Every structure is written in C-alpha cells, then in structure tokens.
C-alpha cells in the first residue's frame, strides 16, 4: 500500500522549517513526501494581499494532488501548518496526523512581532551569524505585514471548533522552550482532540523550530514508529 506525506510549514516560513524531518522520512521510508509552499511564503516573502483562504486552498489542492498518487495520506503540520493539518483532517480522509509546535493558541500581533524579534536573538547553533535559520528569520521581520498576521489569527479561530471532531491517530510534538507557542498549548490541543490514539511528546530543550532541536533524532524515530504502526 503506497503512502504519501503532506508536510505543511508555518506562518511566514517555508518548507525549510520541516526539512530535517522530511529528510529523515525520505531516508527511512519509500513514501512520497510533498512540501508545498503556501501563497506569499517561502524563501522570498510576498505576503501582502494573501489571506487565510488562500493558504487553506493551497493545502487542499496539495492534498488532493497527493491523494491521487497514493493509497493513504499522512499530514504533518508545523506551527500554523499544524492548524491547517487539522482543517484537512476534518474535511478529507487523512490516515494520521503529526502536529509540530502547533499554533492552537494565537497571540496579539504586537506580541507575535515581539516574539519573532526575541527568536532572532536566540542562538540555535553556536555560530549565529552563519546560522541559515537565523538569517531567514532576521529577513522576515520586515516582510510580514500586519494584515497577514491578522489572517493567521483568523485561521486559528476558524479551525478551533474542529478540534473535537478529530478522531484519527495523532502525534503532538512541542518544545518547552518555545517562544512563539506556549508549550501548555500542546496539552490544550491534546485534551481537545477526541482521538482514541494520541501521543504528546514534550521536549525539555525544544524551541519553536522543533525540527532543529537537540533531541530531534529521538522524536523523529518515535514519530516514524507511530506512523508505521497499523
């Protein structure tokens, strides 16, 4: 039986946010991995004019295209992508869900900007000046219009009523040191979902970009075992 994995990145980000995990999946499976870039996102941010509806449609089109090629579809969502993953699970036949730093609780636009700036000062690796992730985020601070942030908040509000309707197996990964999504958000999400099979992994050292965390090799293998289990 063929398996496809749809990986959805976060707000103002791109597929690079989940790249370590997708690389791992490609190494240890023969699954078809798709990583769409949402409208206005990616390496060069052009977010003005795009709305939550655009991002949901991007994800729906990517899901439909992948579903035509495989027998089963797994959806992985990072940050805002986690909320979009839940939206897809409500509307389509999704085999399993993986939610990474899922933004189930939004913050005010001012706080979001403040947190992004705080993120820029954190050293994900020792040599911050050469850290590709840091450089991407430093670039985005001046390229995320307030209108886009408001659309992100709309998306979170729109999908929240769906949580109780999600009954498929789900694996939630959340860093305790996340400066964007408070880690207790993961517990809220875990409690809201009505799946009989659900797991919550809390990383003691994980920040928002959980796929770049110190302990990612541990939860990568845990998630893969979850995805392979019948």
Automatic annotation (TrEMBL):
Domain of life: Bacteria
Entry annotated with the keyword Metal-binding: no
Molecular function terms from GO: hydrolase activity
Domain Serine aminopeptidase S33: 40-211
Transmembrane intervals: none
InterPro entries assigned: AB_hydrolase_fold, Esterase_lipase, Hydrolase_4, MAG_DAG_Lipase
Keywords for this protein: Hydrolase
Pfam families from the UniProt entry: Hydrolase_4
Gene3D superfamilies, per the entry: alpha/beta hydrolase
Name the UniProt record assigns to this protein: Alpha/beta fold hydrolase
